[in-house]
Design brief:
With 361 residues, the chain is an alpha+beta fold. The protein folds into 3 domains: 138 residues, Probable tRNA modification gtpase trme, domain 1 (Gyrase A, domain 2, 2-Layer Sandwich), CATH 3.30.1360.120; 85 residues, Alpha-Beta Plaits (2-Layer Sandwich); 75 residues, Elongation Factor Tu (Ef-tu), domain 3, CATH 2.40.30. Helix 2 crosses helix 8.
Amino acid sequence: MKATALTDKHINLGAKMVEFAGFNMPVYYSGIVDEHNAVRNNCGIFDVSHMGEFEVSGPDALNFLQYITSNDVSKLFPGKVQYSCFPNDAGGIVDDLLVYMFAENSYLLVVNAANIDKDWEWVNKNKTNFNVSLTNISDTIAQVAVQGPEAIKVLQPYTSANLSEMTYYTFIITEFAGIKDVIFSTTGYTGSGGFEIYTKIEDMPLIWDIFMKDAEKTGLKPIGLGARDTLRLEAGFCLYGNDINDTTSPIEAGLGWITSFTKDFMCKDHHLKIKTDGPAQKLVGIEMIDRGIPRHYCEILNENNEKIGEVTSGTNSPFTGKNIAMGYVASAWSKPGSEIYISIRNKLLKANVVKMPFFNK
């Protein structure tokens, strides 16, 4: 397994370690529910150094990203971040990602850890007609996410930048406790707000140690992958490999808002047809009525015992106390309030389609 810059720190803190996307990562420290509630109520820090980062520059950088991503990159300006995806040539999704704009024709792409090699091959395969330079800097960059309602209070003492002035999905390059050229971005995948912090891989252990030294005073808690998953699910955020993949359309997945039809992009006609005709299936939120926790691959059925879809993610929501899930259903059953059934351990349990997110700060 690969190690991040912080793997030894997690082990020394007594974290339960697991393999994830080829990396040795902490799944929890004190417990998933405890860590989940720490982020919802105060603040937590996640090691997300396993994520991938690609630099894109050159005269055709904007045109290249307009073609290879679904969102409208022309709306970005230096210091702005955009959520997007790589549509593939069959109408599915290669990956979802963040696009950072540093300057004219200078961008950073942040991709999922499990897809780094696939994404790197994809962007290089499709740059043929563009004058761009691509650099995979994934092995030189480390990243942590500081998430929760007290994130600014926790972070502000370490930097001279006024973090309260930053709006959602923006970033600055500043210093952290004297360490220069650190990126603070108002992004994250928890639904409770906060920041993601990028720095050189050799500087991240020092940053982590500073956080941990002050943790008793600030209330900051280290958080593992287990709570990261329950937090993102409560917030209604898709996980690649579960809720979206190479065969799911952004329109089916409720990601029409990051799919701009005012520009040309790869396989645009396919996605436009799905939007115009209406998708055959839709990703929906599910709340259990009967007792049971839905899991990935559980079948979804209607009142006539006909299969109408499949669960993609499911858990017991620590914040709401309810059993929740996301899954694809035939569009006729996608309206909130629709009564459906989930097959859990050979039992049909009643549930409702509900509007996401399940949690909203």
